[in-house]
Design a protein that fits this description.
The complex is a heterotetramer of chains A (about 350), B (about 375), C (about 525) and D (about 350).
Chain A lengths: L1 H28 L4 H9 L9 H10 L8 H8 L3 H25 L13 H36 L4 H14 L3 H13 L22 H39 L2 H8 L4 H30 L2 H6 L5 H10 L3 H29 L5 H6 L1
Chain C lengths: L3 H18 L10 E6 L14 H10 L4 E3 L6 E3 L2 E6 L5 E6 L13 H12 L6 H7 L2 E8 L2 E6 L6 H6 L6 H4 L20 E7 L3 E6 L14 E6 L3 H10 L4 E3 L2 H7 L3 H6 E6 L3 E7 L9 H10 L2 H8 L5 E2 L22 H10 L12 E2 L2 E2 L1 E7 L3 H16 L3 E7 L1 H9 L5 E7 L7 H4 L16 H11 L4 H18 L2 E3 L1 E2 L2 E6 L2 E2 L3 E2 L2 E2 L5 E2 L4
Parallel strand pairs in C: 1-10, 17-18, 17-19
Antiparallel strand pairs in C: 2-3, 4-5, 5-7, 6-7, 8-9, 9-10, 11-22, 12-22, 13-19, 13-20, 14-21, 15-16, 23-26, 24-25
Helix pairs in contact in C: 10-12, 16-17
Chain D lengths: L1 H5 L14 H12 L2 H23 L6 E4 L2 E3 L23 H6 L3 E3 L34 H37 L1 H16 L2 H12 L3 H11 L2 H15 L2 H8 L4 H37 L11 H8 L7 H29 L1 H4 L1
Antiparallel strand pairs in D: 1-2, 1-3
The chains are: A mainly alpha (about 350), B alpha/beta (about 375), C alpha+beta (about 525), D mainly alpha (about 350).
């Protein structure tokens, strides 16, 4: 097992490197740059022309301009202008990427351009919020979808099965932001019903609440966002659970279970269901990135300061260190969770041993 | 010799294109005597597995049992009044049960509507009474499965649940049917594993199926099937998926267990060698019908139906000259959706006459408990 | 086993129901003002911050040397009890009050002013946007602990505004050897104003509390707490206002007219509108062949249905404008007539300018160049989208092909800076004493804010002269001339100036609306209506 | 000949039937059986028809003009590619309103508004007999915009999915067939794609490439291919070892031919199913992008854009949210139903 783990961990390195490189390139090739944004943002696009000197100071301050090695400078000095420009860009970015890589290896993700706070600190603030929200969503989605999928599989082609399918597809096809606004209008605005708060995570004066009330208050705030996130995933998970169940029910060992005279409940929920969960683990592995990503739209509408918002703002303001850190960290966590889901798979399915996997 | 199971006029249909239902098993009759081994032979797709599954009512949707009876002469938990064992005394039929009185010539094998009297194989008069398995409630049927009738399947590789240990899987049935505790069930499991000659059963019960070889798994299947001491064991090609050497061992084991536990067995196979080795009586099925039936010895010594003859000829002789072609039956089994009106074997039959195409030939008794459906006799 | 999942679902539903049934929040405190913030400020470090939200918050935490009077908009003493300007308008001397304390109890003095200035000029400090404003200051001296003197290299009429409004930070807090840009005080500002910083919950709220030791008793606020709620979605924010979660919010015209006219809303909230200097415009990139001719630009101005747009899309909330100054300012020449929506006249002008559809494809052309251009607007902004689609339609009617180009803000800025656009729509907002130099002087065409590349010798001369004129009336005369030049040249099609629309809870009393807006410091807490 | 007689029991390896027209015939038969599938299919067909005929359904241009006994069909000039022909040179420069005044006979399309026809006097009108589905914030006819929007939304779905299906098939085929290094490379690539939060990547790419209908399709295409690639890889891996491939190889067939003529049709069924679902989600992604302001450029009437415009008036103009919302969910449900039906129809395991 440890050999397997080691091998898996080693294959992560090229993947991580690839992700960092692609992010770096996207970030650097994207039009717009943090310096001009910063200067323009100051007075609504109305600052005086900045001298090249001030711009250069800024670039250096942000680490967007480094000294090229003298040899390289000489080498590109007398090339024709476009070639020189390209080579300079290449040199600059290679060095900056290298510096960044070295820093990351020391777990130093740098400071955000926006507010000069350590990027890690910003992520540490946003990640728990997104995780809470998404874990709740996952929990509810699975708790509802899996039994629904199983029942729908058992009553295949029945009216209930078809009805459930159509209903889920309809749910799936409702655009998130639309549903979010409708929920807010009808359940929170007070124009119709006033059951839930209009976004945010806490009520005013939350700091002074006793612990249980704090939890209650938080949950109360999370009801609508979680509903908005969850309804769309029902269709997918239910259909998946239904089809794996259909697959499993046809297996010989389920027939054996029937032939043994086991009651229906035991056949379905012990013999069939247990096996149908195995592919679910793989699915879960591929859904995990969503757990970390957060949803820009939902966080925007419900005023939730999570990862989606952080990432979106980082992109809009060309906050390179934050963008790079978010992708790197979430890629790393995703790879780890993929690995974990593979390990969980091996535990759930006794047929798979790590040694065999290694050979495959 | 008393009957333990009697199947009457069983018809099982499956949907084919156009919403039509076509018979996969088309009105067959047979019975199983206590302590005997009944072999059912035929090519794949001839309906033998479906027949076996129908006895446990395990035919999967959308297949269905269209008509017929499967009379079981034994005690089923939860069925009252408890039916009596078939024997010298004539028991009252259970309530609401359309007993054999309905068929005046119940001791004969009935085929078609013509009801041509045919001789009874192993002529022992059938007792009255019996429980129609097809009329039991789901719950009652559940008690029959495993407890009264157990089944082992063709594929030991896939017929065991991969995620539970074999100990779990055996004791599960034991606990269910014999109402014993966990500990006791485990002991019974170990005992059963020992019986099927699995070495070191105390340790093996903690193994998962994938850790066992094919032969071992089939032994586990057998142990599981026998763990509740059923009256009837249905073995659906139990050796097909195994190596030849293992096959022999398993067959031997089954044979021994039958002798040991006084079980009645329905052995489904396409391998006539197996039949020769263990069976007392044989049914030859072709395309959903029984084309020939006879005591096992008779089938080998005097096969009558051209199909049976063809099957026997396809067995490779022990010493075959190089270059000599193996005998095969030409053509293929007819498509379920396009069954011919006459004898279903006609298209492939070397001795076909024109009349064969007109109608399904009736049974013809040819002596010594042998019946054949062929116009040539 | 089979029951459990549905049981959990049921339990969750019950819990959800309980939340809605019983109160999981405490009652509201009437002495707290809850104010909507559309986006979170990056930092509350006054020097490195670049967004408008920082100013809105720090305005309560910090005072400046001098400030404008609410009513007259003239400068009056604040932390500086008096100031002197030399006759050559180069030397500004400020006499500071000696009774001001920072929120941590340390006294405020001239060292803080000097330190602030040094930090602004420090190239290691991420404050280039401020640096450009102070680059003409030659020298800053500390005469004594409570007297500072700024010396300018050249006279400039806005110098007093700049030096008097310098965002002063406490030296003793920042000067502790830590990196300035990431200094923790940027997340926990220590000021000297009427409110103290209390807490900042990232992404959700910033809380200020009244500074009980505030020195300026004439401006001692009645409201004890101000909470800035960060709600990025305006629609949701408006709903929260209606529900009473917020005490104050700015509205858009649609909300003002259509969505806030219910009796309940009127009962709970009062609405105020006032005009701050700003205007919206469509700018033509004069470097493009089709925009080089003044006649074409005059024609285009006649093709934009400004009246219709203002009336129907903005519900008449706004005033049409003819030039680059505040419509209520002394710089604005009120005599110039509005340009009408006049497609026929526009077509005539275009014909005169030689833009005629020669090849019959429905698009005008001249010298082989088709009148087909791209109109750049920032993405996601409803007003610009509406404007653009309406323009596209009317332009097409007049034989001009216009393609709408939406761009996300960072890219948009890049396109403007590299002058890589045909036409653009945006808004300017500016100060009470406007210096048009940055937007209109030809020296700014290459790199500055003169994106459209407006170059006019006469206008250049007027602007240069005005920069050194300290007399308002004289400056007004110069700017009126400049206004007329721009009106004639039409480098922009000027649209209109929109008002600030504010709704606030009627719980607050003594609310006065000044030309510059409302002043929360003078509000009194009354009864909830 | 002799060889064949000597080995009568060794028939030539048959190609699996999954690629043949007969196979698709069977799939169609299976598909037809369920009413829901057919409903979904009909909805899609109707939508496609609406999209194709949009200019004939909603247009402010008259369809038919009779003036001085001469019949004109001015709408034809608005239809590509007929517009290139310049059918009525005499109409250029003519204001049809003048003709109307002179008593010409006019016939209009069922919805006599073009999607961009704004009318500042009719802003946010509720549904009426003039505007069947009401008007939007610029006084444009919602029905007309919906009809023309179907073109955008459907083409986003179809083209984006088309792009990523091609990429996915190509990469998946390479990895599945050649295995080894190719497979390793693809696995890493897929892993990289999984690790990027997709929506994040889409936003970043839209920022880089720019906001244009085509780029949006391209971006959805560039980010969505992993599922198809995995599927194709799996299918090819399975098929590669089958006898008919060996048979092809033994006949000296070029690899390209084996890959695309023999293997690909066999792998198409699951890919088709996945693609159908993909169309639905591409339409949804486009609408989310529109919501964030990164969608198609105005005045292009995509459904997502219509819906996101409506958000600011959600409490005063129900028709602006309801109708585009219904259009989106009808389409997506239809595509999902068809996808589901297709899945059941092509899955041999479910057929028995």
């Amino acid at each position: 097992m440890s050999a397997y783990l080691l091998k898996r961990l080693l294959t992560m390195i090229p993947t991580l490197f690839g992700i960092m490189l692609i992010t770096f390139l996207i970030v650097r090739l994207a039009p717009g740059n943090p310096v001009s944004l910063k200067i323009q943002a100051a007075q609504g696009l109305k600052s005086t022309a900045l001298s090249q000197e001030v711009t250069d100071q800024m670039l250096k301050l942000y680490g967007l301009k480094v000294d090229l090695p003298a040899g390289y400078e000489n080498f590109i000095k007398d090339k024709p202008a476009p070639v020189r420009k390209a080579l300079e860009w290449l040199g600059q970015n290679t060095i900056q990427f290298k510096i960044w890589l070295v820093n990351v290896c020391q777990l130093n993700f740098g400071m955000s351009f926006k507010d000069h706070r350590p990027v890690l600190e910003k992520i540490r603030e946003a990640l728990p919020i997104t995780l809470t929200l998404n874990l709740l969503e996952f929990l509810i989605a699975y708790l509802i979808s899996i039994p629904l999928g199983v029942y729908s599989a058992l009553g295949r082609e029945s009216a209930v099965d078809k009805g459930v399918m159509v209903l889920l597809f309809i749910l799936y096809s409702l655009p998130t932001f639309w549903v979010a606004y409708l929920l807010l209008m009808y359940f929170a605005s007070g124009d119709h019903l006033n059951w839930f708060p209009l976004g945010g995570l806490h009520s005013e004066g939350y700091e002074t609440y006793p612990f249980l009330m704090k939890i209650g208050n938080l949950m109360w705030h999370l009801v609508l966002p979680v509903i908005t996130m969850v309804y769309g995933s029902f269709a997918f998970i239910t259909r998946f659970s239904r089809s794996t169940m259909l697959e499993v029910v046809k297996q010989d060992y389920v027939r054996t279970a029937w032939a043994k005279g086991l009651p229906r409940r035991q056949v379905i929920w012990k013999h069939a269901f247990r096996n149908s969960l195995i592919p679910q683990i793989t699915l879960l592995g591929t859904l995990l990135p969503a757990l970390l990503g957060g949803s820009v739209i939902i966080e925007q509408i419900f005023s939730i300061p999570g990862m989606g918002k952080l990432a979106f703002e980082a992109i809009s303001s060309r906050d390179y260190p934050t963008i790079m850190a978010i992708t790197t960290i979430s890629a790393f966590l995703t790879l780890i969770s993929l690995l974990l889901s593979d390990i969980a798979y091996a535990f759930a399915d006794p047929r798979i041993s790590f040694e065999e996997k290694q050979q495959a | 010799m008393p009957k333990i199971l009697e199947v009457k006029n069983l018809r099982i249909t499956f949907p084919v294109n156009g919403g039509r239902f076509a018979p996969a098993v088309d009105g067959i009759n047979f019975h199983l005597n206590q302590g005997k081994v009944l072999g059912i032979v035929g090519e794949s797709g001839c309906g033998k597995t479906v027949t076996a599954l129908s006895l446990l009512r395990l035919i999967e949707e959308p297949g269905r049992i269209e008509e017929g009876q499967a009379l079981y002469y034994g005690t089923v938990e939860g069925v009252s009044p408890p039916p009596r064992r078939p024997g010298p005394q004539r028991p009252e039929p259970p309530e609401g049960y359309e007993g054999p009185e309905a068929t005046p010539v119940d001791h004969l094998m009935i085929e078609d509507l013509r009801r041509e009297p045919t001789a009874e194989i192993n002529s022992e008069k059938a007792p009255d009474g019996g429980i129609d398995l097809f009329k039991l409630s789901d719950e009652q049927m559940r008690h029959v499965r495993g407890n009264n009738i157990a089944m082992i399947f063709q594929e030991p590789m896939t017929s065991l649940n991969p995620v539970f240990t074999i100990g779990d899987q055996i004791s599960e049935a034991v606990r269910l049917h014999q109402k014993v505790g966990k500990k006791e069930a485990e002991e019974i499991s170990i005992e059963m594993l020992r019986k099927v000659r699995i070495p070191d059963p105390q340790k093996r019960i903690h193994d998962y199926p994938h850790q066992l070889s094919g032969g071992m798994r089939q032994r586990v299947m057998i142990a599981m099937a026998l763990s509740c001491k059923p009256d009837i064991l249905i073995a659906d090609e139990p050796t097909t998926a195994l190596d030849v050497t293992i096959q022999a061992q398993i067959l031997e084991l089954i044979q021994e267990l039958i002798d040991d536990m006084h079980m009645s067995v329905i052995l489904i196979t396409h391998d006539l060698g197996v039949v020769a080795q263990v069976c007392d009586d044989v049914l030859v099925m072709y395309s959903g019908m029984i084309v020939e039936r006879a005591p096992a010895k008779r089938i080998f010594s005097k096969p009558k139906h051209p199909y049976t003859i063809g099957l026997l000829d396809s067995i490779p002789p022990l010493f075959q000259d190089a270059g000599e072609l193996l005998h095969t039956i030409k053509g293929t089994v007819p498509d379920l959706s396009r069954l011919p009106a006459g004898c279903r074997f006609a298209a492939r039959c070397p001795r076909m006459v024109d009349a064969c195409k007109a109608r399904v030939p009736p049974y013809k008794y040819v002596g010594e408990g042998q019946e054949v459906r062929c116009l040539n006799y | 086993m089979q029951r459990r999942p549905s049981f959990i679902v049921l339990a969750l539903l019950v819990i959800a129901g309980l939340f809605s049934a019983c109160e999981v929040q405490a009652p509201k405190d009437p002495h707290t003002l809850i104010y909507h913030l559309g986006s979170e400020p990056d930092t509350l470090n006054r020097l490195t911050a670049t967004d408008a939200y920082e100013g809105r918050i720090n305005g309560f935490i910090f005072d400046s040397l001098i400030e404008r009077d609410n009513a007259t908009l003239e400068f009056k003493p604040k932390m500086a009890k008096s100031w002197e300007v030399s006759d050559d308008k180069l030397v500004y001397t400020f006499h500071l009050r000696d009774d001001i304390k920072w929120h941590d109890g340390k006294p405020f003095n001239a060292d803080d002013v000097i330190y602030t200035f040094q930090k602004i000029m420090d190239e290691k400090v991420d404050a280039p946007h401020l640096r450009v404003y102070y680059k003409d200051i030659k020298n800053l001296e500390k005469l004594d602990d409570y007297t500072v003197r700024f010396t300018y290299a050249i006279p400039y009429f806005k110098a007093l505004e700049f030096v008097g409004g310098i965002p002063i930070i406490p030296k003793h807090v920042f000067d502790d050897g830590k990196d300035f840009n990431s200094h923790p005080a940027g997340r926990f500002p220590i000021g000297n104003g009427p409110y103290k910083f209390k807490r900042w919950d990232t992404g959700s709220q910033i809380v200020l509390e009244r500074n009980e030791e505030y020195w300026d008793k004439t401006k001692f606020p009645d409201i004890r707490r101000i909470v800035f709620k960060i709600i990025p979605d305006d629609i949701v924010a408006f709903q929260r206002l209606k529900k009473g979660d917020l005490d104050m919010d700015s509205l858009n015209p649609k909300q003002w007219v259509k969505q806030s006219n219910t009796p309940t809303f009127e009962k709970l909230f009062a609405k105020h509108q006032y005009y701050t200097p700003s205007y919206r415009y469509v700018g033509w990139n004069l470097r493009r062949p089709y925009f080089q001719d003044k006649k074409v630009r005059q024609a285009l101005a006649r093709l934009i249905n400004r009246q219709g747009i203002l009336k129907n899309l903005e519900y008449g909330l706004g005033k049409l404008t003819t030039g680059p100054f505040w419509i209520f300012g002394y710089e604005y020449d009120q005599t110039l007539p509005q340009i009408p929506f006049d497609p026929a006249g526009a077509k005539k002008l275009l014909d005169e300018a030689g833009w005629i559809d020669h090849d019959g494809d429905g698009i005008r052309d001249k010298d082989g160049v088709k009148f087909s251009f791209k109109f750049l607007i920032p993405s996601g902004a409803e007003f610009y989208q509406n404007l653009a689609t309406i323009m596209k339609r009317d332009f097409a009617e007049a034989g001009i092909e216009m393609e709408i180009q939406t761009m996300e803000w960072a890219t948009f800025v890049q396109q403007l800076n590299s002058r890589d656009f045909d036409a653009v729509s945006l808004a300017w907002s500016f100060g009470y004493d406007e210096d048009p130099y940055q937007v209109w002087h030809s020296s700014q065409a290459e790199k500055g804010s003169n994106f459209v590349g407006f170059q006019n010798g006469e206008a250049d001369r007027l602007m240069e002269e005005a920069r050194q004129v300290f007399d308002k009336d004289k400056r007004a005369e110069l700017f009126h001339q400049m206004h007329r030049i721009i009106y004639d040249e039409q480098p922009y099609a000027f649209l209109y100036s929109g008002p600030a629309l504010v709704a606030r809870s009627r719980r607050f009393e003594n609310v006065k609306v000044y030309p510059g807006g409302v002043d929360i410091l003078e509000w009194k807490v009354g009864k909830q209506p | 000949m002799t060889l064949e007689i000597a080995q009568p029991n060794l028939p030539k390896a048959p190609e699996p039937e999954t690629g043949s027209p007969r196979y698709w015939g069977l799939v169609w038969k299976q598909f037809k059986k369920r009413k829901l599938n057919m409903i979904g299919l009909w909805v899609i067909l109707i939508l496609v028809a609406i999209a194709i005929l949009a200019p004939l359904l909603a247009n402010s241009e008259p369809v038919y003009v009779k003036y001085q006994d001469k019949v004109y069909l001015p709408i034809l000039q608005k239809l590509w590619p007929i517009s290139k022909l310049n059918l009525y040179p005499e109409l250029t420069g003519v204001d049809l309103k003048d003709w109307k005044a002179k008593g010409a006979e006019f016939r209009y399309t069922p919805v006599p508004y073009s999607p961009d026809d704004y009318n500042l006097e009719e802003i946010l009108e509720p549904p009426s007999i003039y505007h069947w589905l009401g008007t939007d914030q610029q006084g444009r006819d919602v029905l007309s915009r919906l009809i023309h929007g179907s073109r955008i939304s459907l083409s986003v779905g179809l083209i984006a999915v088309g792009i990523y299906t091609l990429i996915g098939i190509f990469l998946g085929a390479l990895a599945g067939y050649f295995g080894g290094r190719w497979d390793m490379l693809l696995s890493r690539l897929i892993e990289i794609m999984i690790c990027f939060p997709t929506f994040f990547l889409i936003l970043a790419l839209v920022a880089v490439l720019g906001q244009d209908l085509f780029y949006i399709m391209l971006v959805i295409g560039l980010t969505g291919w992993t599922g198809i690639a995995r599927l194709t890889r799996g299918e090819f891996l399975k098929l590669r070892n089958q006898d008919f491939v060996t048979a092809c190889l033994s006949q000296g067939m070029p690899t390209r031919r084996i890959l695309f003529r023999h293997l690909l049709p066999n792998a198409m069924a699951p890919v088709m199913v996945s693609a159908t679902f993909g169309i639905a989600s591409a339409i949804l992604i486009e609408s989310s992008l529109s919501f964030l302001g990164f969608g198609v450029r105005p005045p292009t009437p995509s459904w997502g854009e219509l819906l996101s415009q409506a958000k600011s008036v959600i409490d005063v103009a129900w028709w602006l949210t309801t109708f585009p919302g219904m259009a989106i969910f009808l389409t997506i449900t239809a595509f999902n139903l068809v996808g589901e039906g297709l899945r059941d129809a092509v899955d041999p395991k479910l057929k028995s």
